[in-house]
Amino acid sequence: MLKFIIKRFAAAIPVLLVVTTLTFFLVRIAPGGPFDTEKAVSAEVMQALKRRYNLDQPVYVQYFDYMKNAIQGDLGPSFKYPGRTVTEMVKTGLPVTFELGVYAMIWALLIGVTAGVVASLRPNTAQDYVPMTMSMIGICLPSVLLGPLLVLVFGLWFEWLPVSGWDSWQHKILPSLTLGSGYAAYIARLSRGGMLEILSQDFIRTARAKGLSNTAVVFKHAMRGGLGPVISFIGPAIAGLLSGSFVTETVFQIQGIGRFYVQAAFNRDYTMILGTTVLFSVMIVFFNLLSDIMAVWANPRLKFETSKGAR
Amino acid sequence: MTTSNTPLLKVDDLRTYFHTRNGVVKAVDGISFHVNRGETLGIVGESGSGKSVSSYTLMRLIPTPPGRIESGSAVFDGMDLLKMPEKDLRKVRGNRVTMIFQDPMTCLNPYLRVGEQLMEPLLIHKGLSRDDARKRAIRALEEVGIQGAASRVNHYPHEFSGGMRQRVMIAMALITEPELLIADEPTTALDVTVQAQILDLIKKLQREKGTAVVFITHDLGVISGMADRVLVMYAGRAVETGVTRDVFYHPQHPYTQALIDSIPASHAPGEELFTIKGLPPDVSKPLPGCAFSLRCLHAEEACRSTDARIHELSAGHGSSCLRVHQGSLKVITHRVAHASGQGAHA
Amino acid sequence: MSAATETVKSAPGSDELSRAQSGMDVEQGTSLWTDAWIRLKRNRMALAGGIFLVSLTLMALVTPWIAPYTYEGQDLQLGASAPSAAHWLGTDTLGRDLLTRIMYGSRISLMVGFLATAVALLIGVLYGTISGFLGGRADMLMMRIVDTLYALPFIIFVILLMVIFGRNLLLLFMAIGAVEWPTMARIVRGQVLNLRRQEFVEAAIAMGLSNRKIILRHLIPNVLGPIIVYTTLTIPSVMLLEAFLSFLGLGVQPPMSSWGLLISAGAESMEEYPWLLIFPGLVLSLTLFSLNFLGDGLRDALDPKASKD
Fold first, then answer.
1. CB of A79 less than 8 A from some CB of C
2. Angle at A87 between CA A63 and CA C160, to 5 degrees
3. Which residue of A has its CA nearest to B174?
4. Which domains does chain A have, with CATH numbers?
5. Distance (Å, rounded) from C-alpha C290 to C-alpha C297?
6. pLDDT tens, position by position, C61-70
7. Which of B263, C38, C206, C273 is the most core-located residue (most Cβ within 10 A)?
8. By three-state DSSP, how is residue A276 classified?
9. Fold of C51-60+101-308
């Protein structure tokens, strides 16, 4: 098991290296520099700026400098906001985005797994159709639409919940629902499929033959295998939640890194773009790794195989 | 067999149909039998004859829909298993009536340790503490001949071989000391060498604990070694029933006779093997008369229209063959008579 | 042998004869697709989805001729107005007819959806087929690359590309297509690996057919089912991505319109003029619904495993 984790970890390093390198050079070849503002800047000022941001060096020197610093957690100064470093900005934005992602994930798992399991117990009846139709609606109401709709209905018409910011718990309901709903819907379909597959297995019949109640059969015997697809999906889902946070943070005006990234993209704040991209990659790779490990943990057969394979 | 006159289990006119898109499949179509305390009833038939479905019906393990128990009763110790409330049934199922299945590779939960699965029946039916249940589980593994039981309880099913898993299944089914064990082709998926061990194990434990067994198989050889009495099924119906010895040596139905004749061991070396011509009928179509009449070498016009039900010919020996009842057909097997040609004479 | 000579003798185009003579193969092929079609027709939701999509596409194609107004035609005096006889779906804050703008928006949204999917399809199918067909080390390496791509924050890359190279429509669907292909490649590769082990492919190899011919003639036609299904399911995710980017202001640029852009604009003034959000949103949702239902229906119809029960 440990060997498996180390192996997967080692495989993640080149991925991160490729991402960082690719982004670094993509940003460098981009037409139009970060200092192309409306006002013309004198040559000396430009020169001074370039020196300050280490841009007068050859590209490869810049690259190695950047990588050296990045490993130590220093993502360089922001081009757009002088005096602030990217690391600083990430530090203020990341907890917000992370919190939003966690709540969204909780919604998604709570609603999705419940709906999927309930539907799987009586396939092709109302108990199946109702949650599955809801889930289809969830899939077809993307956050760009659901966000504004929720704001309109609960924020502006009924005035039940605040529509922007990230202070009290009331502020957190609509954004996390917006972000989580699509995933809830997808998780519902995944868990329904997984449960149906497991519930048709012979060992479920054995469990029933033992005289176990339906509840015990479902919770003890079926869930662990049936939710396997959901567990494998958690990693990609977190990656998706993080990138989905762009829209949600924009709709609800939340100062998370998603919003920073979009702003950086508009402002051509290259160090910020680079820094957030690297950060996103690290997180995505990490969560994918985590969900792989969880999948192995949940399925003893895989554990057996990985330990055999490692020998 | 035992002092009591009432059988442990009495099944009457059992019918289980599957309502599929392509019509109603009459998997079990009116079978009746009984099992006495401590005895072994063998149910034999080819695949698709409804023998497994009838055993699942007894345990109410038929997936509904599409399956439905259409009629019949299965009285076990005064209770009708088919009609009692699910809640009461659960106290019997897995406790007083247990079951082992055909494929040990798929019938154990791969996600749970073997010990956990063994303990389950004790925890739900016997109210044992986890500690006691665990000790009992280890003992049960020892009883079925698993070495190092104390550590093996912590293993997962995939760490056991097929034969070992079937031993675990048997231990699990017998752990509550049931009065009736239903064994649905428990050796079919196993290697021949392992088969004999498993059969011996079932016999030994049955003797020790006085358990009655319904043993389902398509293998006549296995039946002859295991069963006190036998029920022969064809296309969801019972065609012959009786004491094993009688049925094997004096079959009273052309189908039974054909089955016995198809055993390779009953042929002289080099002799062409006997096969039953044709295929089993499609049970989703109406089958008037005797279900075997379409393949029977002795069928007459009446066989295809008159309902064939089991009638006793002598004490405890019944056949559904119309012509046997009428006395116009005398069934003789190859095995006994070693006659060439048809082996049965009108 | 004799069948072959007779076929040659028979007049070209005498379809029935050659079909009868080439026997089972053709018949099975036909019945598979006919079967799927029958199953699909029975699935009312899928059928409704299909009809909606076809109508929508036709409408988008002829929009320049049938649109009631021009898409940039403003009527500042009118401003935003609720649905009326003159403007069925109302007008936006600049007095532009919403129906017209949605119709023109469909052209962009559908085009991005279809073209980006086509890009993903092309790359994915070729890559997956080659990988599955070559097998062994080449396959391992190629799938390793796909795995690596999966780990990349792709949406971020798309945004990055849009920022760096400007918000250009061609680039938009190239970028989206480039994001969506690895899943297609995986699916196709799995299918091809399965097929490769089957006898008719071995036979083709034994007959000395070139790899190119085997891939084009034997493999691709046989993985068509899963490809069609997955394509129907890729289009909605592509359209979502477009809506997403346009919403952030990184996709299609005004005065052109797309559904994402209309929703974004609608969201800004939704308190006073909710129809500006609701109508474009409805069209987007209905389209996503249709594509998903059609995709599900096709999967049930084309996947024999799923239709067994």
1. no
2. 60
3. A210
4. 93-310 (1.10.3720.10)
5. 10
6. 988 888 777 7
7. C273
8. helix
9. MetI-like fold (1.10.3720)
In this complex, the residue of A212, A224, A301 whose CB is nearest that of residue B158 is A301
- Cβ–Cβ under 8 Å, residues A205 and B107: yes
What DSSP assignment string belongs to C203-232?
A: HHHHTT--HHHIIIIIIHHHTHHHHHHHHH
Reduced to 3 states (helix: H, G, I; strand: E, B; else coil), residue B229 is: strand
Say which of C148, C153, C165 has its CB closest to residue A243. Answer: C153
Higher pLDDT, B150 or B326: B150
The encoded tokens of residue A295 equal 């999948």
Inter-residue contact B323 to B290 (CB < 8 Å): no
**ipTM over 0.85 threshold:** no
Give the span between the Cα atoms of C286 and C298, in whole angstroms: 18
The owner of tokens 């029975």 is C42
| Minimum CA–CA partner of B60 in chain A | A209
Better-predicted residue by pLDDT, B177 or A27: B177
Give me the amino acid identity at C225: G
Asked if C243's CB is within 8 angstroms of A142's CB, the reply is yes
Which of A142, A277, A284 is opposite residue C160, by nearest beta carbon?
A: A277
Report the C-alpha gap between C30 and B199 in whole angstroms.
50
CATH, range B9-218: 3.40.50.300
To probe the interface with C, which of A7, A144, A259 has the most C CB atoms within 10 Å? A144
* Chain A residue with Cα closest to B88: A211
Q: What is the DSSP string of B287-346?
A: --S-GGGGT-TT--GGGGTS----EEEETTEEE--HHHHHTS-EE--HHHH--STTSEE-
Amino acid letter at A109? L
Confidence of residue C15 (pLDDT cuts 50, 70, 90): very low
* C281 touches A at CB < 8 Å: yes
Question: Which amino acid type is present at position B100?
Answer: I
Give the chains touching B; criterion: ≥3 Cβ pairs < 8 Å.
A
Instruction: State residue B335's pLDDT score.
Output: 53
- Asked if the Cβ–Cβ distance from C247 to A26 is below 8 Å, we say no
Read off the pLDDT of each residue in B94-108 and give the average, rounded to a whole number: 86
Residue A280 CA to residue A20 CA, distance in Å, equals 11
Is residue A41 within 8 angstroms of chain C, CB to CB? no
CA A181/CA A162 separation, integer angstroms: 19
Domain segments of chain B as ranges: 9-218, 233-270+288-345
> What are the two backbone dihedrals, phi and then psi, of residue B276, each rounded to the nearest 5 degrees?
-85, 125
Specify the higher pLDDT residue, A287 or C49. Answer: C49
Neighbours of B158 (CB within 10 A): 14
Start-to-end CA distance of chain A, whole Å, equals 11
Q: Percent of chain A having pLDDT more than 90?
A: 7
Q: Enumerate residues 6+ apart whose C-beta is below 8 A from B192.
A: none
In chain B, residues with a C-beta closer than 8 Å to the C-beta of A220 are: 112
Residues of A engaging B, defined by a Cβ cutoff of 8 Å:
201-203, 205-213, 216, 220-221, 224-225, 298-301, 304
| Stated length of chain C | 309
> Which three-class secondary structure state does DSSP give residue A142?
coil
Q: Tell whether the model's pLDDT for residue B240 goes beyond 60.
A: yes
A124: alpha, beta or left, given left = phi > 0 and alpha = psi -120 to 50?
left
Q: Is C252's Cβ below 8 Å from some Cβ in A?
A: no
Contact C100, C71 (CB under 8 A): yes
Q: CB distance A276–C156 less than 8 Å? A: yes
Touching check for A110 and chain C: CB below 8 Å? no
- Residue A280 has its nearest CB partner, among C156, C161, C162, at C156
Q: Which residues pair with B330 in a beta bridge?
A: B345
CB B53 within 8 A of CB B29: no
C267–chain A Cβ distance below 8 A for any pair = yes
Domain boundaries, chain C: 51-60+101-308
Q: Do C240 and A142 touch (CB under 8 A)?
A: yes
